[in-house]
Amino acid sequence: MREQLPEHLLTKFGIIEGLGHRLNAEATILDFGCGAGRSVHVLRDFGYKAYGCDIAMDADTTYNSEDEDIDTDSMVRQNILRLISDNPYSLPFEDGTFDFIFSEQVLEHVQNYSEVTSELCRILKPGGICLHIFPSRYYLIESHVYVPFASIISSYYWLLFWASMRIRNEYQTGLSATETARLNFEYLRDCTNYLPKKTIKDHFDDYFDEVVFCEELFLRHSKRGRKLSTLIKWFPFLPSIYSTLKARVLFAKVT
Fold first, then answer.
1. Where are the alpha helices (DSSP H) in the chain?
2. Domains in the chain: boundaries
3. H/E element holding 101?
């Protein structure tokens, strides 16, 4: 029955199984950066003890869902979805709660890596694991503002040039080039943090006993990566290129 899970969840389960870890029916799972809670809702439908948490913002903004079949408000009332405390930074769960924590497109927003990795480690059970999938530092088109190389070139004038070329994300239609560039500059400065791969690993190494990047397993188990994965035996550098230019997949474990 698990095969009926959405593709992105099957991919995550496939990666951790490829690393020798299988979740049983009693597993407790956290979606770190859960948004409206769709993944939590789906996992609970399949019998998992799933929870979610997201940044300490206004609840109506953080958990606003356009999906009529997701009762976000109900999950918030039941304490299934919880807000993260910002001052001091704290994930809203007891020590040793989870068997598995995952996130997708979250770590590129983390400004306080040391606090985040410490808290992720704290709420994992002994032997617990986590998996994080997030855009690479050198992603050709930054995935939030749609500007080429904006993850490493975020000056106002670079952003203004592309705004003048009519580059906009879906929320910027009708805005002037100067207003678009200003919003993009502020967003990239305040809401993104594209660290080098080694720096990210160093942060996780401070708290986790095993830390590996596993883009090859992602390509093998994700629907969009399977065709590319068939080429790896002839071009073994493909996972490295994928990690540099597209996405990073980080696995970490506590003993």
1. 7-18, 38-45, 59-62, 72-77, 113-123, 156-164, 177-191, 197-205, 215-221, 226-229, 238-245
2. 2-136+195-253, 138-194
3. strand 98-104
Pairing state between β 124-135 and 247-253? antiparallel
| Residue 226 CB contacts under 8 Å (≥ 6 apart), including other chains | 219, 220
Per residue in 81-130, pLDDT (tens digit) is 999 998 899 999 999 999 999 999 999 999 999 999 999 999 999 999 99
pLDDT surpasses 70 at 204: yes
Fill in the DSSP letter of residue 130: E
Token output for 13: 């389960």
β-sheet with 81-83: strand ranges across: 81-83, 49-54, 28-32, 98-104, 124-135, 247-253, 210-213
CATH architecture of 2-136+195-253: 3-Layer(aba) Sandwich (3.40)
Tell me if the bond preceding 148 is cis, omega within 30° of 0: no
Looking at residue 33, its pLDDT comes to 96
